[in-house]
Amino acid sequence: MTTLAKDNRVVTLINVFTVAPERQQQLVDLLMHATEITMRHVPGFVSAHIHKSLDGTRVVNDAQWRSRDDFEAMLRHPAAIPHMQEAAALAQVEPHVYEVVETVHG
Amino acid sequence: MTTLAKDNRVVTLINVFTVAPERQQQLVDLLMHATEITMRHVPGFVSAHIHKSLDGTRVVNDAQWRSRDDFEAMLRHPAAIPHMQEAAALAQVEPHVYEVVETVHG
Q: Residue B40 in contact with residue A106, Cβ under 8 Å?
């Protein structure tokens, strides 16, 4: 049952935001605030990282969720929705759900 | 000296590849091979993750480098260049260099 196995594995949501450089810090602050006050308390949240590009034009937010079901429940969570709408108003966002296929340490 | 400080911090290269679903696994295999046989041995390599999107259309490769100087030296490394060209031939790639501004655990 491949589908069931997949649904029981950790998934990673990677949001790539394309942003005007003068709004990059505002977007970073919004995502840090949303992660601290809401996302980390949503059932199934494992961890998250927020990255800002040195060229000022991108912000990447990756979040690990215990399962695809937990991630999909978050998308409908009343506390999460306003944060996602605020971020989408500041920048163009491209979200995709991933599985990690390799981790390498030097 | 903000510039010097920045150059001495770990940076993260995040490559977002847009790929035809029938080529996603080929791209993943290529990136895993390049990381194992070349990238992990390049001076300044810290760690890397390869992610494949569940919808088949994206691959994300993030790699931590000891400093921006190490990352820029890698771009000119004779062993690294053919791997980057092979990957770029398989998919559209959007690379940016980032700093991590927040890490949160649930």
A: yes
* Distance of alpha carbon B38 from alpha carbon A12, whole angstroms: 26
Backbone angles phi, psi at A50, to 5 degrees: -120, 130
Nearest CA in chain B to A47: B105
pTM reported for the whole predicted model: 0.90
Q: Which two tokens stand for residue A26?
A: 């505002």
Interface pTM, i.e. ipTM = 0.87
Partner residue facing A102 (CB), from B41, B50, B68: B50
What does the pLDDT look like over A41-73, one tens digit per residue?
Answer: 999 999 999 999 999 999 999 999 999 999 999
In this structure, are residues A83 and A70 in contact, taking their beta carbons and an 8 Å threshold? no
Return all residues near A8 (Cβ < 8 A) that are at least 6 apart. A67
Q: How far apart are CA B29 and CA B10, in angstroms?
A: 26
Residues B39-65: pLDDT tens digits?
999 999 999 999 999 999 999 999 999
Pairing of strands B92-105, B11-18: antiparallel
Q: Does A12 touch chain B (CB under 8 A)?
A: yes
Count of alpha carbons within 13 angstroms of residue A51, beta-carbon side: 26
